[in-house]
Amino acid sequence: MRSRExxxxxGNSLFLGLVVSFxxxxxxxxTGIVLFKCDIPFKVPLxxxxxxxxxxxxxxxxxxxxxxxxxxxxxxxxxxFLGSVLCLLNIYFPIPFGISMLFLASVNPRYEExxxxxxxxxxxxxxxxxxxxxxxxxxxxxxVFVLSVGNFNVPSLFRLKVYPVESFTVFSAFYDFERAIxxxxxxxIIILMLFIPLSLFLxxxxxxxxxxxxxxxxxGLDLGRFKWPIFAFLLLLSFVFCILPIGNIVFDSLSLDxxxxxxxxxxxxxxxxxxxxxxxxxxxxxxGFLIAYAxxxxxxxxxxxxxxxxxxxxxxxxxxxxxxxIDLWNREYTGMVYGSFMIIxxxxxxxxxxxxxxxxxxxxxxxxxxxxxxxxxxxxxxIKRILFIQVPLSKMGILASWMISFIFCFRDTxxxxxxxxxxxxxxxxxxxxxxxxxxxxxxAALCTMTMVVPxxxxxxxxxxxxVKRS
Amino acid sequence: MKRLLLVVFALNLIFLFAGCQSKKESSRxxxxxxxxxxxxxxxxxxxxxxxxxxxxxxxxxxxxxxxKSTGVMNRIISERSNPQADVYWANxxxxxxxxxxxxxxxxxxxxxxxxxxxxxxxxDGYWTGFSARARVLIVNKKxxxxxxxxxxxxxxxxKGKAVIANPLFGTTTSHIAALFIVLxxxxxxxxxxxxxxxxxxxxxxxGESADFVAKGEYAFSLVDSDDAISRMKKGLPVEMIYxxxxxxxxxxxxxxxxxxxxKGAPHPEEGKRLIDYLLSKEVEKRLAFSDCEQIPLHKGxxxxxxxxxxxxxxxxxxxxKLVAKKMIEIQPLLKKWMGL
Lengths: 470, 340
Known about the structure:
CATH superfamily of the largest domain in chain A: MetI-like
Structural class of chain B: alpha/beta
Oligomer: heterodimer
Structural class of chain A: mainly alpha
Number of domains of chain A: 2
Number of helices of chain A: 22
CATH topology of the largest domain in chain B: D-Maltodextrin-Binding Protein, domain 2
Number of strands of chain B: 10
Mean pLDDT of chain B: 89
Mean pLDDT of chain A: 85
Number of domains of chain B: 2
CATH architecture of the largest domain in chain A: Orthogonal Bundle
CATH class of the largest domain in chain B: Alpha Beta
CATH superfamily of the largest domain in chain B: Periplasmic binding protein-like II
Distance between the termini of chain B: 55 Å
Helix content of chain A: over 70%
Number of strands of chain A: 0
Largest interface: A-B, 59 and 67 residues
Number of helices of chain B: 11
Helix content of chain B: 40-55%
Distance between the termini of chain A: 58 Å
Order of helices and strands of chain B: HEHEHEHEEEHHEHEHEEHHH
Shape of chain B: globular
Order of helices and strands of chain A: HHHHHHHHHHHHHHHHHHHHHH
Largest sheet of chain A: none
CATH class of the largest domain in chain A: Mainly Alpha
C-alpha cells in the first residue's frame, strides 16, 4: 500500500462489497423466506428465474447490462458505482436466495409447530424461523462480500475504480507477478479478519437443531393484503435480474443455426466443463465432509487452520492463484498433472473447498453430538458412525455444498483461463475466446447453453436422488 | 451407497470420454503447441489448415478480450522455467519484443520471412511480422464531418464525442508508445493532456469502442482495422478512415501479427514448420480474405478490392524495438494518467 490512491481504491472496494452483500442478503433472504413459506403463485418459474444468473460467469451479465444501460449513462464514479452494484446484485443475489431456502428446508418443523400454538404464523417466522436460519444469512453475507470485493470485471466495465484493478493492471500491463500477488494480500487479510468472528458466531449458534428426519415443507402462509404487492415485487425482481439481462442474451440466440454452430464449436467444451465440475465438486464434498467431521469431533488439533488456508485460496484473485499453481506444478516430473485435466480439478478443489468444509461443518454442528457419542459407547466404529449417522443426517448439507461447488466450478473463468492445458478448455473459456469478433448469435447460444445445461444436469441429479429415496 | 459411487464413477467416465473424444490422438502423432493472441475466429481456421496440410496436430491456447489479450503472454512468462508452448502467435510485435527482452524467445529465420520488409521483423530472427492490421478511425455514418487525423481527438468540435480504449492495455498502449517516438516526449504528453481536456471517453477495449461508435453513443474512435471491418461487415452504420494520410501527416500506425519460437520449446522442429506456414503467402491471402481483412506484408499477394495494399498506405515510420522499450517506460505514466 504505497499511495493514497491505493487506500482510496481499497476503500471503494470495501464500500462496494458491503453495499452489495448487504442488499443481496437482505433481498435474497426475504425472497427466499417468502417463496419458501408463503402462498405466492408461480413459485417454480419465479425460483428458476431468480436462480439462473448464478450459472453465468460475471462478465457476461455485465456486458448484457452495459448493452441495456448504454455507456453514455456512466459518466462519473457514482454512476459506475450504481451500475456495478446493480450488476453484482444480479450475479450474487442467488447465493443468499439459495442458501436461505436450503436452511429453511432444514429447520426442525417441531419448533415452528410448537410456536404456532402460541403465536400467529408471521410471529413464528419472526421469532423462530429467522433466528434459526440466521447462520445461513451470515454465511451468505460473507460469501457475497468476498466475491464482490474481489471482482474485477464488473467494476472495470462500469469504469469504477476499485482495488482489484490495481492488481490486474500490475499483472497484465506491468507483468510484475510478485507485486500483483502482494497487492491482493490486503483484501485477503480483511476477509480473514471478518471470517474469524463469523466462524465464532456460527459456532455459538450451533445449539439449534436440524429437522432430523422431519420434512419441513412450506405451509403456504397466507400473506393477506400483502400477497399481491409482494408478488409484484418478486415479478419486478425476476424482470430486472433475469428477463432483462438474460432475456437479452436468449433473444439474441433465437435461431437454429446459432445453436447448431454453438454445439459444433462448443459442444466438446460443455462436456469437459461438466466433467471438470462434476469430479471437482464430488472430491470437494468428500474431503469437505471428512475435514468437517474431523473438526467437529476434534479428531486432530488445530484443524481450523485448514479453513483459514481454504479461505485464503478462495479470496486470492484467480489469476494469482493460477500463478501459484503454475509455479508449483509446471515441472518436469509433474508434467503429467500440469499437462492434463488434473491441474484444473486440483485448481477447483483448492479454490472452492471452503464451500464444503464450511457448509458441511455448519450442518454437522447442528446435529446433536449425543447420537454419535451413544453409538461410540456401544462400540460402533468410526466408519460406521460416519456412514450410518452423520452422512444420512447431513446429506442435505453435503448435497448443497456439492451443488454450490459444482456451479462455481462450472462458471469459473479467472482461475482456469491461465491454467487449462492446450486443447482442453472448458466452455466458459471457449465462449470468451470466441467472443472477440465471433458471431453474436452463436456466442448468445453458447451462453444460453452454459446456463441451461448445468441447470438441467442438477435437476436430473435431484430427480435421481428423489426417486432413489422414495 | 455402492450404487451411488458407481453412478458417480460412470458419469465421470462418460463426461471424460465425451469431452476428450474430439481430442483423441495417438502418442506417435506429431504435435505443436501454439499460444495465440489473434482472435480465435480468425486464427483457428489457419491452424486447422496447417494440420490438414502437414498432419501435425495443433494444440492451441487462445487469448481473450476479457484478459485484455495479455493472458497467453503472461502464461508464457510464468511458464518460463518449463516452457509448454512451442510457438507464440502474437497479434502485435511490441509484446513480442518485450518477450525477447525477457530472454524467452529463440531465434529462427524462416525462409518465408525473406520477402517480408525489414521494418516488420527482428533482424536477429526473434520474431517476424506478417498480415497486418492498421490503427484506424471508426466513425459513425450519421456524423456530417469526418475526422482525418488522430489529432482530431483534440479538436474542440469533437469535445465529449470521441472514445478511446484504455491505453494501459492492447494495441492502444503500443500506439501511444509509438506517438512518444514520433511526436517526442513533450508532444505525446501534450496529446494525452489534450485528450483528457477534450473529454474523450475511455472504454475497456477497442472492441467496446467500436460498439459504442456503431450504436451512435460516440462519434468516432481509434481502433484496430479488424474491429472496424467486422462492424462494417455486420452492416452497422460505421465507416473506416486511415488516419493522417496527408503529405505531412504522421501516417497510419501498422500493427502486424508476429510469430516467434519459444526458447526451450518442447517441439522445436514442428514449431519451425508452423512458423514457416504462418509466414507463407498462402496464410496472408487467407487472412486478407477472412472477415478481419488483414493487410499482407509480402508483395504480390492477392487481396480483396477494399483492402489498401501496404505500399499505398502512408505508414507511421517507427522502430518496433524502440516502441517496445518506450512502452515499458511509459506504463507508470499511463497508469497515473488513467488516475490509478
